[in-house]
Amino acid sequence: MPRPSPLRIALLPALHLALAACGLACGGDDGGSGGSGGSTTSDTGGGGATPAGVGGGSTTGVGGQGAGGATSTLDCAGLPLCDDFETAAPGGPPDPAVWSVVSPNCSGTGTLAIDDAHAHSGARSVRIDGGGNYCDHVFIANSTAIAAVGAAVHGRFFVRFEDPLGMSHVTFLTLRDENAGGRDLRMGGQSEILMWNRETDDATLPSLSPAGIAQSLRPTAGAWHCIEFFVDGPSGVLQTWVDGAAVPGLQVDATPTPDIDQQWHNQPGWAPALSDVKFGWEGYGGQPMTLWVDDIALAAQRIGCD
Ligand SMILES: [Ca+2]
After folding, report:
1. How far is the CA of 24 from the centre of ligand 1 (A)?
2. Tell me: the pLDDT tens digits for 174-193?
3. What's the gap in Å between 223 CA and the centre of ligand 1?
4. Is 39 exposed, middle or buried (0-12, 13-18, 19+ CB in 10 A)?
5. What is the CATH number of the domain that holds 268?
6. Cip1-like core domain: which residues (predicted)?
7. Which whole number is the average pLDDT over 159-175?
8. pTM, 2 dp
9. How many Å lie between the centroid of ligand 1 and the Cα of residue 285?
10. In a domain? residue 1
11. Ligand 1 midpoint to CA 246 (Å)
12. What mean pLDDT is reported for the chain?
């Protein structure tokens, strides 16, 4: 999945040392075996493909950290949150010391469990079977790591959707915002693309205009994708990368940009104070989904996908 670059090649000896030093506890990003940079399961090969419908692949207009090219992946073991789900038993819940299984407000048909049918790292991941109606939602939740990270939060996770995202609004990642009365900042989909949604006013990023939709992307069903996000609470900056590349339509900066973050700026001074993170599935328009999540990490710096 990662494209070798001179910088990355130069960093490989250092990465090997780091991986050797942290052993099994490191979260198994790619297993540390070196060489191809691929991962250990047979169903990861599709992650390198350019997803259908990528909006031109341009990084125009994305500032800051997205432009830097190759980055070395952080040592997961030392991060405030790092879980490769390898120590939990298939069929059971993820480590209860790290995750709660929750269905806020109401519960229905949604289920989740550790699964050994698909994995990004090692042999296991979390499988989520979310129903299409709101109460059929289910999530794993961690409410301690973000306090250890601070006000500017980087996240990284791998996700594999069984089906394409549909037209209706769905959520697969939420971040509770104490400055919004505990309402969520939500990553999900609508109009078949990845998007962010702000629960308080239902603003979307990008705007769901044809021009906005073209600036996000459609995840490839049946393939692992690496999603990275950065939320700088005090400045209200939000950044997103998929498979290592900044997604132009999933960026909030200080300047309202038509079709992208102009709608987001309708709430002046947006400055989220995040307090938890949840991964799962919640549908608002009838779309159910089976998805797998693996190699979740939170840190104060960009984490990387390798
Ligand atoms: Ca795993």
Report:
1. 11
2. 999 999 999 999 999 999 99
3. 15
4. buried
5. 2.60.120.200
6. 95-299
7. 98
8. 0.79
9. 31
10. no
11. 24
12. 84
